[in-house]
Amino acid sequence: MSIPRIASLQQQSISEPPPPPLYIITPTYRRPEQLAELTRLGYTLKHVVNLYWLVIEDAEEPTPQVTKLLQKINVPFSHLVAQMPAKYRKNKVKPRGVSNRNRGLEWIRANASDGVLYFADDDNTYDVEIFDEMRYTKKVSMWPVGLITKFGVSSPIVKNGTVVGFYDGWIGGRKYPVDMASFSVSVRFLLSRPNASMPYKPGYEEDGFLKSLSPLKLTEIELLASNCTEILVWHTQSKKNPNAMSLDMGKYNNTNLVHLRNILV
Ligand SMILES: *[C@@H]1O[C@H](CO)[C@@H](O)[C@H](O)[C@H]1NC(C)=O
């Protein structure tokens, strides 16, 4: 029984067109956790077909250790850079990741014509199911994200299959009080909104971007994760690590530790 079944499945996968492409925008910056987080995310993305990973560093030049890691993981990728404008760098609360995500949007406008985009920060945990659900987004899809504020989750409030509000520990006057990892956008829909971009406004990046996609009705938002009853994305974060001490070269020159220290921040 099993042999004909496998044969017919193989035939099906050859003749069926590939699913719509996913464009994953990951802003990142050099810090002790960077390589660890990108390793975890990259090997998650490796389980997803027809995916293109835009890794965008807030840096002057791409970090060679990051390029090397991306080549090794071998998910189709572009490694770009986009620095935070100097005028924001002296702010106490910095609009982190905005220049990177806007660079990703610019890349998509220049290179993509269909499929779906998603902002996947490197400090989250993703159930691969969410990628196959978001792939068919017509305009904007949303779903819950776990480990957000003392509420434990940030989610659209769903009644009879439509959004009636948002559950989030910090509303802050936002129209869309949602997390960056809680929504995807169709590329065609983005292209139909030539001015859509993310504002340099800490705390209001998601809200500003989603508002820049207007007109968009709450009733048009597509609800994933079984009408927002499942948690498929978690805002894990990792503990902040101190920078590694410099190496005593008098003591350790000509040892493996020199190589290790070059990997670390
Ligand atoms: C979501 O809710 C709507 C309305 O109640 C229902 O028609 C639909 O089947 C539900 N979808 C899922 C995946 O549960």
UniProtKB/TrEMBL annotation:
It is found in: Golgi apparatus membrane. Pathway: Protein modification; protein glycosylation. Mn(2+) binds at residue 123. It catalyses: 3-O-(beta-D-galactosyl-(1->3)-beta-D-galactosyl-(1->4)-beta-D-xylosyl)-L-seryl-[protein] + UDP-alpha-D-glucuronate = 3-O-(beta-D-GlcA-(1->3)-beta-D-Gal-(1->3)-beta-D-Gal-(1->4)-beta-D-Xyl)-L-seryl-[protein] + UDP + H(+). Residues 1-21 are annotated as: Disordered. Its cofactor is Mn(2+). Its main location: Golgi. One of its GO terms (molecular function) is metal ion binding. Belongs to the glycosyltransferase 43 family. This is Galactosylgalactosylxylosylprotein 3-beta-glucuronosyltransferase.
